[in-house]
Amino acid sequence: MGSDEIRSQGFSLKELFRDVTYEIDYYQRDYTWGEGEVRTLLRDLCGSFRNWSANPSYLRRPHTAPQYFLGPFVYYEPSRNRRYLVDGQQRFVTLHLLFLHLRLAAQERADTRAVDRLNRVITTDGEHFSLGITDHEPVLHAVADARTYETGVGDSLSRRNLWARSRQVESQLAEELDAENLTRFTEWLLDRVVLVGIRAASADHGYRMFETMNDRGARLTAVDLLKSHLLSHVGANEDQLNTQWHEMLRELAVDREDHAAASRFIKAFLLARCAREGQDEDRRQIDSNLNVWVRQNAAHLRLVPERPDNFVHFVQDLLKSARLFRPFLAAGRALKTGGDRLETVLFNERNGLTCQAVAVLAAIGPDDRPSDAKDKGRLVADYMDRWYALRVLQDLPVQSADADALAHDTLVPVLRKCRTVADVAAVLGDLVTQDAGSIRDAVTLGLRGNNAHQIRYLLARATAYVEEACQRPHDVLAYLDRDRFHIEHLWANHHHRVKAEIPDPVVFRSRRNQLGGLGLLMGRENSSINDLPLHDKAAYYARSNVLLGIIAPG
């Protein structure tokens, strides 16, 4: 290469990490990707895989399927098999977490081919990680060994965030894909997902490229471009629109570290109130290029140059809706008890029903009173929580695609027509009466390798409900924390103890895992009594929580 020559090359993921170690230079920031960025990446990957796997011709001839482009990255190569990342660290670290969790799942399935392929992208020599960031190694070793990483006072923010995102990857992977699809997903991920590497000539050249990309002004986002478009057509009301736009951004700044809050809100607003019913292309474009969709659909939105006042009204509606939506933003980040009664907003967020923002905004009108907006949104969140629980009880899928179908195809069309709280209650009540199935369908529901999150959720809500009804203190968020509370099997895994009642070991395993044979127990308690017979464990249950304690005499 010439002294400053830049070259590019496409890499599949299996090629990207083959016998290569990636490191970062001193000027690189920490691993800062949050829940939103990781969720988006995994959702896009899993969604693209589902589209690929639905095509029989691609399954027969995988090499003919279109590749999935994951973007560019910039690097320089000081020596053979050693590269320094200039740009792309966040994606590389997240992919590494994904590889580790896929390998754990493959090890559980005894899928030696998948384990072998993943080993080649995770390590260079079976011992050292291919992503050589020293600060990350304690967390990565814990993940690789399926251990809990105990964060300590000396941990960097990067290391704490890495552990949080690892738990998210594990949970979301189980939500997005059934266990039987993981092998095929691994093959698709390694073979058909590509990045384009842009190679700098040297370390100095790489640093100059880093400065160019990061120090010459932040890149304009879709939200910035939308604001610019609206300002360019509002005429004399430019100052008013600009002021109201910034007021809207302040309303959405519930979490100062959440830089994507405005983008998510505007997308949800457009999907809830502006996208045309039954138009999947509207949904796709809003999600990927919201500013382009607004420009291309100016007539539909009545945002035309001859009516500059409409541009002001559009931003006013955004601002008023943001004010009304702010309590739901806060409720999605921390458990709110008391007057607002918005607990299910947080539960839905934790269960991956992020599309609830669209449904809530479809029910809320910009001119609603704040109390009415809360009541409407609460009804919607409660309905979605009920939908999730019933789907789990009926052993039906609750992946993001299923929740999106509920929000966009079922809820938005009817909620848009509602004007009052009574209207929202009426249409949701009608949907409840149409729900098929019964809780009795759950008689055989049990714990499997891919539904621990859902089973834990049912147990946590049931445990909290009983504790509250018995006027005992409880912490539902602690019940949802798998490190603090373990899923307890009433029967220890010893078939011989109940062989007289259940002769068949297969039937025993099934019964042992059924929902009625499970509860939640503090981790330290569970570890100490795990193998005891049920009659010996009952006394421990009595001091743990009422739902388990009812087994104990007295």
Using the CA coordinates, give the radius of gyration.
26 Å
The major pleated sheet works out as: 5 strands, mixed
Quick one: overall form? Answer: globular
- As residue ranges, the low-confidence spans are none
Largest sheet strand order: 1-5-3-4-2
- Proportion in helices: 55-70%
| Average pLDDT, all residues | 88
Overview of the structural elements:
The protein is an alpha/beta fold. Helices cover 57% and strands 8% of the residues. A hairpin with a 2-residue loop joins strand 3 (68-79) and strand 4 (82-87). The radius of gyration is 26 Å and the shape is globular. The mean pLDDT is 88.
Keywords:
554 residues; alpha/beta; 5-stranded mixed beta sheet; two-stranded antiparallel ribbon; 57% helix
Short recap of the structure:
The protein is an alpha/beta fold and 554 residues long.
SSE layout:
Layout: E1 7-12, H1 13-16, E2 21-24, H2 35-53, H3 56-60, E3 68-79, E4 82-87, H4 89-109, H5 112-122, H6 137-144, H7 157-176, H8 182-192, E5 193-199, H9 203-214, H10 222-231, H11 238-251, H12 261-273, H13 280-288, H14 290-296, H15 298-301, H16 308-331, H17 343-350, H18 356-363, H19 370-393, H20 400-415, H21 421-434, H22 452-469, H23 476-480, E6 485-489, H24 505-513, E7 518-522, H25 523-529, H26 534-542, H27 546-549
Parallel strand pairs: 2-4, 3-5
Antiparallel strand pairs: 1-5, 3-4, 6-7
Helix pairs in contact: 2-7, 2-8, 4-5, 4-7, 6-7, 10-14, 11-16, 12-18, 13-14, 16-19, 17-19, 18-19, 18-20, 19-21
